[in-house]
Write a structure and sequence with these properties.
single chain, about 200 residues, mainly beta, five-stranded parallel beta sheet, 9 strands
């Protein structure tokens, strides 16, 4: 995949009477080729303004796994409540790409996860310039696609994260906020989507 994705809301699934969730439930799983991490063409997703929120199932895994030599941009996101970890960067080639600047990870708020940043020996070294904010309380409010889970409207802590300028990266457009939704007046996601019960959402 080498496209652009912006303004994405993800709520993780939960087990129900109809069946369980997948064996490795994640919000994002970004891969290049497993047998040859440097194979071309390289998977290069460009993703900005996303909110990835666990559905609350204890068997859920990680908010975002970036691995197997992928490149691209993952920026201006909110990752909340994943039992294993919020963000996990795996494999030496992925870290090589990060160090070379062909994989950009910028301006992400992570909170309420088992580990906000998973550490397993092959991780890149993040600096303050990456603006990965951990250890802060969740302050999102507003509409939630799954009852009892954090809402999609950013609060004070999420809004305090410096925004990464994605101008010129794929077809992404610059914004003044992180996450998929700007504020309570930003209701692009209502009126055509369905909530956890399968009910059509409404702007009323």
């Amino acid at each position: 995949y080498q496209g652009s994705l912006q303004y994405a809301i993800v709520y993780g699934g939960v087990a129900s009477a109809d069946g369980g969730i997948s064996g490795d439930p994640r919000g994002i799983e970004g891969d290049n080729l497993s047998s040859n991490n440097s194979a071309t063409p390289v998977s290069t997703p460009r993703v900005s303004n996303f909110s990835i929120i666990s559905g609350g199932d204890a068997a859920a895994d990680t908010g975002a796994v970036l691995r197997r030599g992928m490149q691209g941009t993952i920026a201006n996101g909110i990752i909340l409540g994943w039992p294993d970890a919020g963000l996990d960067v795996d494999d030496a080639q992925t870290t090589t790409n990060f160090n070379a600047g062909t994989l950009q990870i910028q301006s992400i708020f992570l909170s309420g996860n088992g580990d906000d940043l998973e550490s397993d020996g092959d991780d890149p070294t993040f600096t303050a310039a990456n603006n990965l904010v951990t250890g802060q309380a969740i302050t999102t409010t507003g509409f939630a696609f799954r009852a009892g889970r954090p809402g999609v409207e950013p609060g004070a802590n999420e809004n305090a994260v410096p925004v990464f300028d994605v101008t010129g990266i794929g077809s992404l457009e610059a914004t003044s906020y992180i996450g998929a939704v700007q504020d309570a007046n930003d209701q692009w996601f209502l009126g055509w989507s369905v909530d956890q019960t399968g009910t059509l959402t409404t702007t009323n």
